[in-house]
Amino acid sequence: MCKDAARWHVRHRAFRDHRVVLLEELKANPKLAAVPVFCSEHNEQFRFFDEDCGHVVCRDCVTLKHNGHKCLSLAEAASKYRQEMEALVTKANTQAEELKGAETKVEGVSLELKQAYENKAALIQGTFRNFVAAVTAREHLLTSELDYLYKTNSLTLTEQRDRLRVFQACLESAVQRANTAIQPSGNTELLVARSDIVSTLGALERQPPDLEPQSNSILEFSFDLEQLPDLLNKLGFVSGSTGCVAVNTTATGSGLKFAVPGQKVSFTIVAHDSQGCQCSAGGDLFLAELKQVEGR
Length: 296
Hints:
This protein is mainly alpha-helical and 296 residues long. It has helices spanning 3-11, 23-28, 59-64, 74-181, 187-206, 228-233, and strands at 48-50, 55-57, 71-73, 250-252, 268-270.
């Protein structure tokens, strides 16, 4: 309807229970047509808003049930509370934008955390691969040194054994010739061989071989197995933010109960994560806000 028809429509008795709204209002709020505009008890159109009760009322309601209450016309009340609701809507929209920004920020940190995890996991794996390679190289070096010691000492003992065998063979040969020469029936043989046998036995006696082994069987390898767990436990460390949450974090100490301006006080902060569990690593930044008893 046009404005003139709308005014006539509202004044005509036949249409007193009809409701007229602007098309813009109806488009903005399609549910507007479902809102009751007449008092179900008195069949009168709502014309006032009772601020004390918080209800829309008709003329009869004001006279019979809401007498003495602070009532405003619907236009006045709507104008008054529209500003309040607009402020609330503005605040809610601002909060919604902050939530979107926070969600974007959290998502960004989550992606950064995943990338940092993958990078550090690869670094840890590469570090320990290098560590295993270094341990393997050390094993080969120690094995080579052991091989050298074994071969050197083994060669020394082999050469000494060969010399002992040669000496023993010469000694046995000279003894055998001497035993043959000293037989009672061999006077001629004794006198003929005497000089050579005496010379040989004398030479063997004057240059005896070393009877003690010129090397030993000792090969040492030292490695403190008891220190190995401690050594492994000190190989590298992992650190990062613990994700502490302020609302779950507590603080204790005398500095929270009494403080003098210009003088240092101390207190202890115990950080907890979102699950309420105490954080196991440090590195988080804390901002402490101090207030007076009056709240300033």
